[in-house]
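Sequence in, structure out.
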Amino acid sequence: MKNIFFYCFFTFFAFSAKASHTKNNDSIPARAEDVSSIENIVNAVYDVISGDSGVKRNWDRMRTLFIPEGRLMATGMKPDSSIGYRVMSLEDYITRSSPFMEKHGFFERSINNKIEHYGNIAHVFSTYESRHSLTDSKPFARGINSIQLMFDGKRWWVVDIFWASETDKTPLPQKYLP
């Protein structure tokens, strides 16, 4: 009986995953170079969110990088010193981030990536630095983006990005620095 339950569960899951994936038709095609490799799709995400103040981001390009159900999640310390998180859809992230990025300028770049890859899934621990301008001598923030990716046989997709910023209590470990 237990084996039948697991068989039915996994069969249902497999068909649900396939049905869900067939919805991934891009209305705007992704740039082939953006989605051709793990490194390229990670670089494309950083490229889209980066730009000077007054510059609108190419959110349509960002949409081509994520699965429709993709999520972005931030974690960090709340004012009461407890740890919290915020889960956003891609559209939530765009709505929340656009005004700040366009007003203040925002450049984020990877300074080190640790890639784990198995079959059609990949995980990238991407250490980042954030600046308001490319000419800033020091970043105003550093942290780690934990990026989950999926290869569908043709291209890479971002499934989710979960990040934490460096703090005095949580400095970046040496193993994640260049």
